[in-house]
Amino acid sequence: MNIPSLTISQIKADLAAKKYSASELAQSALDFAATENPKTNAYLHFSAERALAAARAVDDKLARGEDPGLLGGVPIAVKDVIVTKGVRTTCASKLLENYIPPYDATAVVRLEQQGAIILGKANCDEFAMGSSNENSAFGPVRNPVALDRVPGGSSGGSAAVVAQGTAVVSLGSDTGGSIRQPASFCGIVGVTPTYGRVSRYGLVAFASSLDHIGPFSRNVQDSATVLQAMAGHDECDATSAPAPVPDYSAALTGQVKGLRIGLPKEYFQGLESESGALIEQAIEQLKKLGCEIVDLSLPTTEHAIACYYIICTAEASSNLARYDGVRYTSRSPNSNTLPDMYRNTRGEGFGRECKRRIMLGTYVLSHGFYDAYYVKAQKVRALIAQDFARAFADVDAIVAPVSPFPAFKLGEKMADPLQMYLSDIYTITGDLAGIPCLSVPCGNTQEGLPVGLQILTKHFDESTMFRLAHAYEQSRIG
Q: 79 catalytic, yes or no?
């Protein structure tokens, strides 16, 4: 079997036709991933015993003539900030390098209930903080499209395993673009659902009001299926929305004629020429499919970077305070007093980027600066959400670039944090507003580097987002 070419629908058909068993597929996928992983460092560790046990359960269901589920037998990878019972969850940090969670994230539970086979945990930026996957304590991830380039971050490992073919689909998390940007850089599909659509229970918190769990895949259909399997209200997560989950696959009709598509002028400033040309070609393709293109403005966009890096660092400062050596983190041995233990454990355990964000967040929350920075940023966030609400009163979807540029070289931006932060200039607004958005491939540069088209829709309207992305994807294939 050719693991890199498999899709969810192909696996379901093959298992039904008894071309191979789920156990055979799982073992082949584990073997292939172990062989290929040294090239990219995309997996931090494998969960072979768990994967093979889940595969046997799928085979047993098939033998009894039962439905194995939406993801029956499908090999997946899970970003290492999403907890897995009995399987190490490190958040790519030395502080948690030996942490074995006692429970599963809700998203993981729901995927396994639908027959998914978890191969292992994917590398990422430490505590999901980064735009290149160079901040992992266990080494950077390399982009399988071009090994001298970054895969994007923070979910770079989750994107790389799908692009490399060592998993059919994967889970990532998105706080400011950490699913869409890696998807764009690696030439695959990445989905950030509406905030609250997927339970965050078991997602190690970076910025709680911004974090989303979402899927990566090699086509839109597979992402729709994975989201279908894990979406829905969860009593364990107070921010989980009680909204009904539609049949996303049923939305993939290919019929997009008459959809009004907004082009925000602010998202086409500072765009590299090759990336811009590919986005323009994608827009022309949408016109050919019958979409009506509407120019619009999202004027608060210019304040989004400042707004985001105040809010996310403030929440990170609060969330990461728990990693102090007292409970489940590694503890510095070079401590004689309690203050020394806190100071040394955090100083030795956190990487440079985590320390930078903790200090920024502590500063904006401190006495005398809270109103000037944090409160003001929350007001700007409300204005960004209002911009989108006004836009969606007139259009069905918004299309834009994902990144100003394609994947950059390893090390190229590490010395300049501001330039690294600007990588997310087109993606952070979607997270600040909490709306659904995705990246779908729209071509390659002359160097063969992928570029993604971003599609954004109103809250809980993933169906329109998937419908538009699928129609565009199929028109390119055709």
A: yes
Kindly report, residue by residue over 285-332, the tens digit of the pLDDT.
999 999 999 999 999 999 999 999 999 999 999 999 999 988 878 888
Contacts of 321 (CB under 8 A, 6+ apart): none
Catalytic residue among 136, 154, 217, 317: 154
Domain span including residue 53: 1-478
Q: Considering 23, 93, 132, 178, which one is annotated as catalytic?
A: 178
CATH assignment of the domain containing 106: 3.90.1300.10
* Residue 47 appears among annotated catalytic residues: no
10 Å CB burial of residue 63 (0-12, 13-18, 19+) is exposed
Q: How far, in Å, CA of 16 to CA of 461, rounded?
A: 33
The 10 Å Cβ neighbour count of residue 323 is: 24
Element (H, E) at 37: helix 22-40
Percent of the chain at pLDDT exceeding 90? 94
**3-class secondary-structure state, position 271:** coil
Q: Is 154 a catalytic residue?
A: yes
Q: Is the pLDDT of residue 183 over 80?
A: yes
Cα separation, 13 vs 71, in Å, equals: 12
DSSP letters spanning 346-375:
HHHHS-HHHHHHHHHHHHHHSTTTIIIIII
The predicted model gives 143-153 an average pLDDT of 98
Contact 91, 126 (CB under 8 A): yes
Q: Count of domains in the chain?
A: 1
Any residues with CB less than 8 A from the CB of 127 and at least 6 apart, and which? 81, 91, 92, 93, 204, 206, 316, 320, 354
Distance, in Å, from the CA atom of 396 to the CA atom of 468, rounded to the nearest integer, reads: 10
Query: In which band, very low, low, confident or very high, does the pLDDT at 478 lie, cut at 50, 70 and 90?
Result: low
| Start-end of H helices in 196-272 | 220-230
- Taking residues 425-440, what's their average pLDDT? 98
Residue 171 parent element (H or E)? strand 169-174
Nearest CA to 241 out of 233, 250, 251, 231 is that of 233
Q: Is the pTM of this model over 0.85?
A: yes
* 431 vs 335, higher pLDDT: 431
Q: Please tell me which residue in 12, 79, 121, 413 is annotated as part of the active site.
A: 79
